[in-house]
Amino acid sequence: MNRFFKIIPDKKTLYLFISIAQTILLALFIIIFGDFGSLVQNLFMGPLISILSVLFVVLIYIGFNYFHKRREH
Fold first, then answer.
1. Which pTM does this prediction carry?
2. Does any domain span residue 5?
3. Average pLDDT of 63-73?
4. Is residue 57 a contact partner of residue 18, using CB atoms and an 8 Å limit?
5. Hey, what long-range contacts does 54-57 have (CB within 8 A, 24 or more apart)?
6. Which of 6-25 are b and which e, b meaning 16 or more Cβ less than 10 Å from the residue's Cβ?
7. Enclosing domain of residue 65
8. For the chain, what is the domain count?
9. What is the pLDDT of residues 9-63, one digit of tens each?
10. Residue 4 domain-assigned (yes or no)
């Protein structure tokens, strides 16, 4: 875990990484929810993947915010 944060030198790079991750997951979310034909076909899989990707973004956001608050104090 610590090794991962040593790779990213400053906050700007970290926030860039977060925004890239959010953009990718948002794109996934739009693709899955935008294609209503397959959403009807995979009524279970579609929403499940969307919910998981949203949860993943939220967890990344909360996790990094918590990490920075702990580091600053």
1. 0.35
2. no
3. 71
4. no
5. 54/25, 54/29, 56/25, 57/21, 57/22, 57/25, 57/26
6. eeeeeeeeeeeebeeebeeb
7. 11-72
8. 1
9. 677 777 778 778 888 877 777 776 666 556 556 666 667 777 777 788 788 887 7
10. no
Assess if residue 6 is contained within a domain: no
Say whether 35 sits in a helix, a strand or coil.
Answer: coil
pLDDT for position 16: 77
Angle at 32 between CA 43 and CA 21, to 5 degrees: 135
Amino acid at 56: F
Tokens standing for residue 50: 């969307």
Q: Of how many residues is the chain composed? A: 73
Instruction: Using only the alpha carbons of the chain, give its radius of gyration.
Output: 16
> Has residue 70 got a pLDDT over 60?
yes
